[in-house]
Model the fold of this input.
Amino acid sequence: MAFVMNNIKHAVVKILDPLLNMTLGRAYRRLFPGKAGLTAAIREDYWGYKHTIDTTYWSGTHWGNIPQIQQYMNEMISGDRNKDYIAYALNKYVAPLRAKYGTIRLLSICCGAGHLEHALLNLGFADMIDAYDASQASVTKARELMRSNGWGSKINFFVQDVNKLQLQPDVKYHVVFNESGLHHLSGLEHLFETVEKSMFDDSVCICHDYIGPNHLQWTERQLDVVNDIIQMLPPGSRQSISDAGKIYANKSVFKLDELLKLDPSEAVRSADILRVMERFFDIVEKKDHGGTILHILLDDIAGNFTLSPYRNLLPLLIGFEKRLISIGYLPSDFAFWVAKKKTHPKSTA
Done:
């Protein structure tokens, strides 16, 4: 009976709420206000539900849905609009480690439902993965994915609060991988100290994450630019994906108390990630790839820009964001970076 009820709940959420992604929090709160019913059930394991809904990211609401945006990110990171950061990191950082060690063992932080880990194994990024996540439901989904694709023997899943990460003793990693997990963690100091101890001297930590304002409390300067742009866009391009009757006239910052009720981990220390990480690692490469304007502007309207005539506006919007970041008017809210263990000069005494 419990299995049936869980499937029913998952089906209801999949139909009514493909917008659990925190960038779509307004739509979520409109659909399920208050603390009762489905909202409370989801909140028991927010990430479990989020990671088991396949339509969450691909619902036409997220800026990362758009091929032109993906090409923009790729070009900013790899210099090639057709090469994403995973292919870039594989060639530049993982291939030399494989040539040296023969096999690669990878640690994945906040693995969710395992889609990224599945891709990494398919690409030959690693031969064995140890993956950690706080959500039992997400890990269950990830295990099913790996078994169904024949990778079950190549990955170990662990359910842990990654803020208090405890790794297997005497296991060393050639590669540590973070895809959008760090901005959900408050225990950065403990995490980085623990991870650093698990790495070889020449291991790499590959990160791709949001590093903007904590709890998505965007700056007044950001919002001024976003809303100036919105007022110039054609009404059809501002049509809400989640609410057919709404046309956006502006965008506003998330109400902090509401965001904390839904997901207190959302961008909990995002602005601190790099500063804290540099206490434990040397950052050997960092590539900013924007989002400071576009991930706010395109929230809940991204799908409109995959269609004519609005897709023709994207090069202008992308170019405008790039320019504002390049002249220092705005920082980049998203980045790719690679870190290594700190090098300590040998004593001459």
In short: The first strand starts at residue 105 and ends at 109. The beta strands are 105-109, 128-133, 155-159, 173-179, 199-210, 281-288, 334-341.
